[in-house]
Amino acid sequence: MSLCLSRLTLARNPATTALKALIDPIEGPALDRLHDPERGRIMDAHHRLIWALFADDPDRRRDFLWRAEGNGRFLILSPRPPAADGAGLFLPPEVKPFAPDLRAGDRLGFVLRANATRTRKTVPDVRAQRVDVVMDALHALPSGSESDARREARMAAAETAGRDWLARQGEVVGFQVTDFAAADYSVVPLPAHVGPRKGQPQFGVIEMTGRLEVTDPDAFLAQIAVGFGRAKAFGCGLMLIRRA
């Protein structure tokens, strides 16, 4: 499958200015610091915005991955280029082929925003549950206000559980993690929830960086094309790579 990597930037025109509060309400790194219902709404707004570039058929299924870079900028990996006119909301897209020539033993730096989950079955004859790896690691800690101790425990869990999760991915799809850091971890409530905050569906997002070694180039590139983890509709799963 041929892929393209596109860089999109919101146009600065009267239309986007009038709609900014809806389509890109917060700029820059402030988005990554949100740990409240607003972040889910922003991710949902960005997803709908990106969909406008690929909605050429009412029956079309999502076949792209995307990542918000802040300040109205987005990266998109897709088998077809986005709409050339940017749906009237973007500057003309910068599109280039995504076809890295990888060999076993290549060392790459990576950046990945991921909703990392695993399957947990605690009761016999009951359907297994899919749980966020960091939330699961923090399950034994007391809930409540965000204390410094809990914040430190959360980041320690993100570091350990995130690396273990990515290493397991690599065992299946052709790479080994050689260096890993969790730059941030946040919990994002699903924006469509109506009702009390307690019990609101949510998902965790780990900001991962590090280096890896390719062991099976074909399997690795095939996985990059479909993304890592879940919550891809909300801008998770796109791994960016570069020569280390």
Automatic annotation (TrEMBL):
Signal peptide coordinates: none
Q: List the residue ranges forming a coiled coil, or say none.
A: none
What Gene3D superfamilies does the record point to?
Answer: Crispr-associated protein, domain 1, Crispr-associated protein, domain 2
The domain of life for this entry's organism is Bacteria
Recorded hits in InterPro entries, A to Z, give:
CRISPR-assoc_prot_Cse3
Name under which the protein is recorded: CRISPR system Cascade subunit CasE
Species of provenance: Paracoccus versutus (Thiobacillus versutus)
